[in-house]
Amino acid sequence: MGTPNAAGEQVDLLNATDGSREGFRVLNEDEGQDSRMVDSIGALSGASARRHVIGAANQLKADDLAVQKEGLDFIRNLICGNDSMEMIDCLFEELGQDKLFEILTSKLRPHLSNPFNRDRRSSENNVRQSPPQVDIVTSVCYIMVHLAAGRPRHRQLLISQPDLLRATLPFFAHPSHEIRSACTWIAINLTCMDDQLDHPSCRDRARELYQLGWYRQLEDLRNDPELDVRERVKTALHQISSAMA
User: Fold this and answer.
1) Is 201 exposed, middle or buried (0-12, 13-18, 19+ CB in 10 A)?
2) Helix (H) or strand (E) holding 39
3) For residue 150, is pLDDT > 60?
């Protein structure tokens, strides 16, 4: 199944190639939106999306990383597009807010395994830590990007997840520029204001990011080798500073 991306190319919703997955866009004011980022990997909507949310959640519990990624990409697709805000609400209703954030946080943490002995009573000396797979981290980060691009209450829910936000910090220095860029977009979207009524909440979100160490991580990316990352960093730092002023 495919859908046109921002460049008019057909994108496979659940099996997008690296090239097609890069297609994200910034909605400008002429489109009735602000400078928040959404990625155009493809959108799923309607009753069929609602019916498959629980199926995607079950995929996230699988041992097979490919199955996990498929579930994450389903959610990523579900909450971007014209009806993204309704789909975010659908996701929270069907899966549960706490459960979703718990899953996302767990996917960003190192995977613990014991390759020598599967006995639970085995020595901790045999336990190995493996970093999360790049594709898994990318999908999780863009889910966070889309959640932060939702309604103000969606941003408030995300900023209220310190464990998830702390777990994201190491990925500001990830070798993948796509992951580094996604981290900056999370900060940009979290510090956008819908209107003046959102200003106090936006200020609080900016302060929370600052206190969690996001501002410092963004500053470390000022000289990132990728121009796209550097430009996003400027926007994120400006928005955080302006919101706290």
Assistant:
1) middle
2) strand 37-39
3) yes
Report the distance separating Cα 110 and Cα 130, nearest Å: 5
Residues 109, 63, 11: CA angle, nearest 5 degrees = 85
Helix axes 177-190, 199-212, angle to 10 degrees: 140
> In the predicted model, what is the mean pLDDT of residues 145-149?
97
Q: Which amino acid is it at 103?
A: I
Please, are residues 105 and 163 in contact by the beta-carbon 8 Å criterion? yes
Region at 213 (left for phi over 0; alpha for psi -120 to 50; beta for the rest): left
Buried b (16+ CB within 10 A) or exposed e, 122-149: eeeeeeeeeebeebbbbbbbbbbbbbbb
Q: Highest mean pLDDT: which of 60-64, 117-121, 209-213? A: 209-213
Q: Please state the rounded mean pLDDT for residues 75-80.
A: 88
Contacts of 156 by beta carbon, 8 Å cutoff, 6+ apart: 201, 205
Exposure on the CB side of residue 148, measured as CA atoms within 13 A:
31
Long-range contacts from 206-214, C-beta under 8 angstroms, 24+ separation: 206/239, 206/240, 206/243, 206/244, 207/243, 207/244, 208/159, 208/162, 208/165, 209/159, 209/165, 209/240, 210/240, 210/244, 212/162, 212/165, 212/166, 212/169, 213/166, 213/169, 214/165, 214/169, 214/187, 214/240
